Amino acid sequence: MDFISPLPVSVGELRQRILSRWCTLEEAVQVAQLPDRLTYFEMRRFLCEDAPALQGPSSPEPVALALLSVPEECELPVTQPSRLEAGILKVFIKLCKDEQVDPAQCNAFVSRQGLLFELSRFAAREGFRSWSSRALLTGEGAPVDSDLSEDAFCEVVVRQNGHLEDAQEWFDLLCPSTSTAKPSQAPAKLLEPAALTQQALSWPKLPGALDASEPWQLSELVVRLVSVWGDLTAAFGLDAVKEEEASTRGASPARASKDGVKSMAVQPAAPAVRRRRRLTTRQWLRALRGKPGRLLLSEMEARTESERLALLPHTVDRLFSNLSDRLLVTKNLWLPDELIPVRYSLSELGFWGCGGPAPLAVGRKLPLGRRPFITFVPSQPELAGFEDSTHPSRALVSPHVASGVAWLRAPKPPNGAELVSWHLQLFSSEDGVTPLVSVSQPLLIQVMSVPPAPPSEIILCDQTPDSLTLSWTESLQDGGLEVLHYELSLELEDAISINHADEPPVTITELEPEKTYVCCVRAINSLGAGPWSATWSFKTADPCAPPALRAPYVVQVGTSQAFLRWVPVGGFRVSKYLMKALKAVSATGPENADGVIQMCEGDQMDMLFTDLSSFTPYQFCIAACNSQGQGPWSNLTPEVFTEPDLPGQAEDVACVAERASLCVTWKPPKDEGGASVLEYMLRVKSMELDNPQVLEMSVGNSPAWISGLFGNCSYRISVAARNAAGLGCFVDVEGRTAVVPPNAPRALELFCAEADAVIVRWLPPGNDGGSPVLNYVVKVAGPDEPELELGCLAHPDPKAAGGTEKSAAGGPGGLQLPALRGATAYTVRVHACNKAGTSPAAEVTVRTGPTVPGVPEPPRVSRRPGQLKLRWEQPEDGGSPVLQYEVRVALSGDLTILAQLCVEGQEVKLAGLEPGCSYCAQLRARNQRGWGAWSRWSAPRSPGAVPGRPPAPRPLLQRTARSLLAEWDPPDSDTPLLEYEVWCGKEETFCHGIAPAEGRRTRTSRTVAKMTGLAPSSQYVFRVRALNVSGWSPWSAPSDPVCTMDAQSSEEIMSAVFRHFGTVGAAFRAFDRDRDGLVSREEFVTSLGLTKYRLGLVSLEQRAHLFCRADRGGSGFLSYPNFASLFGRASSRRPHRRSFSQDTSASQDGLCGPARAGMRRWSQVTPQCLNERLQQASCIEVLACSGSQSGSCNSSRASSPALRRTDVEGTTQPLRDRADLENRDTLHRCCLTCSPTKLPTMDYHGEALPALPLLGAARAPTPDR
What we know:
Elements: H1 11-21, H2 25-32, E1 37-38, H3 40-47, H4 63-68, H5 83-98, E2 110-111, H6 112-120, H7 128-138, H8 150-159, H9 164-174, H10 193-202, H11 218-229, H12 232-236, H13 243-249, H14 261-266, H15 281-289, E3 290-291, E4 294-295, H16 299-310, E5 327-328, E6 333-334, E7 339-345, E8 373-378, E9 394-396, E10 403-409, E11 419-428, E12 437-438, E13 443-448, E14 458-464, E15 467-472, E16 485-492, E17 495-501, E18 506-508, E19 516-525, E20 528-529, E21 536-539, E22 553-557, E23 562-565, E24 576-582, E25 596-601, E26 606-609, E27 617-626, E28 629-630, E29 640-641, E30 651-658, E31 661-667, E32 679-686, E33 695-699, E34 704-706, E35 714-723, E36 726-727, E37 731-736, E38 746-754, E39 757-763, E40 775-781, E41 788-789, E42 793-794, E43 815-816, E44 825-834, E45 837-838, E46 842-847, E47 860-864, E48 867-871, E49 884-891, E50 897-903, E51 907-910, E52 919-927, E53 930-931, E54 954-955, E55 964-967, E56 979-985, E57 1000-1004, E58 1008-1011, E59 1019-1028, E60 1031-1032, E61 1042-1043, H17 1050-1061, H18 1064-1071, E62 1079-1080, ...
Parallel strand pairs: 6-13
Antiparallel strand pairs: 1-2, 3-4, 5-7, 7-10, 8-9, 8-11, 11-12, 11-13, 14-15, 15-18, 16-17, 16-19, 19-20, 19-21, 22-23, 23-26, 24-25, 24-27, 27-28, 27-29, 30-31, 31-34, 32-33, 32-35, 35-36, 35-37, 38-39, 39-43, 40-41, 40-42, 40-44, 44-45, 44-46, 47-48, 48-51, 49-50, 49-52, 52-53, 54-55, 55-58, ...
């Protein structure tokens, strides 16, 4: 075995360290979040959290070397690892060997399961009954998501502080093998979690186990009853407490006195006012059977045990010794320092429920405080050494859960007592330390001292031909008493010798060489000797030289030194070690190779090898020596290089100046120190400044430019080479810079930020470039303005100004800039000039204060009748809002001021002016700074006039029973006419200058208008007035009276019918009285003569004439197409897709107010309905322009002297009378042909009706239109 340490910490001690911080390995793994695969450093952090943090090695060194580099107690370097580190390393190497992993690899991993199994080998052995009771008490069972293999089951047991060998035995008994195949071919055995839980609950007596024949203990049964039933009242079917007993059941618990928990332990608990009774066989049988879904014992076993337990003389309150009202443990007898799991109940009535013994405290809200705890209370306070009322071991419980588990360690018996009784009690507390009120009845716990347990491992420290030096780990369980001494037994061929030792290690002499001895050890305390440990075999050494060691580890190398460590040889006394350093290895091996050999003492584990060459590859080997001679040389280490030495000086260093920069050149050093030069370090220092600063810079190779220096100044430059070893010696050279332009002026500042009084001051530049400053240049730049450059200013004489060199430039008072624009950000730049050039600019930004407003533009003048309207744009406000304007009005000739007024807006009206005079105006603006300058005078303008009185309108011959047509000549106007307003009515209703409400009115931009909706056979006159920008003209004289016709035209008749019915289809159905799809002559004549259509007087001849027009074939009946041909013009007045937008602009002047409103209301209806309803609502129609002049009629008609007749009719033929017009209309309609069509059943608006030929847009205008 490898010799690692004289006494490494054993695995049992490592396990004890973990359980000293955590109650179980399960809790330790969960808190540490241990992964499935562990590196050495992760395992080290898990086993010793209080050890210094250790990170993984940056180089691929073996784990043993990384361990030897760990500091112990903050001391460096160390000569050997600590016992704890050696123990952890020993466990890691053992796990690596078990899993066939090379521990020398830097990425070596071991399994978490293997580590837990190794730690469990030092756990106390126990039976399945004991383990199952603890598992049921703590509620820690197997996972329920999958079946358990053997390794998974063993890990579950081990995590609950079980032993690995116990788990393996239990698995074999729980899953016996039934296959006859070979073990390698047999299927893997699996254990169902439900079966494991039921086995632990109902059948913990495994077949073949030592405790299988023992009867059930009450302590085992009560744990299972609580696990199955929850409380014992439900388990035994106890009767609930009576009302007369309820008053005394919840007596207030005793409050702690000044003597603390000790005084409460002396006072006996107040007996519950309950009738004590024994449990019957039926009650035991009910409890042991379990409940549906949670069965406990089999029927036969339950009956046997219930009969046995019913014979017990104990009453209910004294039946279970390991149960109190709120606390439950698995047993009453414990060993010192043994881990005790305690289940507590914070429910209203505790574990017994409503039918058992009364608890000490009752209620839904127990007086627990914020941090209640469970602790030990001495049952014999008169014993010496118990002045403190509580034991240090205490467990905090959560007051917010109804039930939980707490873990405590059994206290050690004082003064060598063999058996000491304690009481477990639950106390309320606010801080977790000071008890306030006892919440539970005391639960008796007995701690018994026993002889100590044997040491877990014997270690060979040294061996010779006639002696063995042995050591062992201390006993993990001293039995509660101090270990007095140890006994070591050595057996050789049935000869046993007993050796006494106070403490390890011990050396046993006078042994025979090359003999194997069987050793074991046991510990002894005041109660006697404990059991012997496991046997270990050791052999005395052969009288020979030490064997070969493993190759040493190179920890660190220097330029001429190397620090090495090694693992010493085990089983041999070593007087000294020899270390050899080789530059080249001979073909025969390291034994015959020449090298430097150095020696160290035999108790060392490291050494510093000196006298090596720099930057040279070396390999090292080691040999151990004793009294028998020198052992063989070890294997060689991997090749390592010593550190390089510092490089030599750079050669041929020179310096050349260029303006304010220096160019330094050099050659590499001859001796680079064994390693290539990485960079060169340059240091620059001024030779003329008072407080020179040293500038350092690094460059890769020659040359190097050094810029940013003072002009005309001497500098010293030092150059040194750097390699991996460090910086070599410096070499100095001097150089001088040339004259350069100065730096920018300093401390540039502005005073008096007024726009017309900005003063600039600055200080001379800190570096004049090696030549005095001759002058300065000041530049001023603003937004959207060209840069203003002031003339060069000579530097003022500081003495003449009465100042010093630090006086401000620009004169004693500074430099005043020209007047600037107000409230504007300006950038001021100042340059210094010497004989070498101009410096960079010193820049400052200033925002000027507000000034008076700028000069506005002349006002724009527009004419009104007898008035002038002035408008203007706001000038520049000077950085302050404009508050007011002042306007002056004068005659255009001599500019005599006629009026002067102040306004706040940007327009003003001038009234009371003479129409024949010309006027002009000017203005100025005012803000908080004052009045600005006056603007220029505006162009002369005179007030405008309204149009003259138009001539009397002239009625035209084109007239019907309900419409008249009139034209007129435009009046005189200085400005273009905008529109006309036409009035038509009775002459006696017209008042001069005012158009009465009676009559018809319309507006148009043309000089002709048609009035509709008039009464038949009535006399009317026309009046007109014009509008320009100045207003309306007076009304014209009345026209000659004109009379409407007495008879209506055919088109007016059919339009009235169309307006009445709304659609042609509705009119056809109304005329077709017999519903045969045809309109006869009698039906047509009769229907057309009805008064409900408001047609007025229509003669029989006129009705017959209309029927004849439609009856083209002379059949005496009208089909639907023939009937629809009569409505050609009325129905065709539906707006086309372009008509609404164009007709609105073309005819809105011809519509009165109600008609316009009607058009707006009908904007959402279909175009056809819009046109039909427009015919019903409109009473005035404006004539449209003919030909290609329709787009320009608005401008041409205003200036035309008279309306030509061709503009009305679109032809040069003379107008005809009404009879001729009707004959022409009849002739034209009769010439049109259309195919006869059967009368459709759908409405005229439906899609089934075909498009009528007479409704097209290409129809020629009829004469009567």
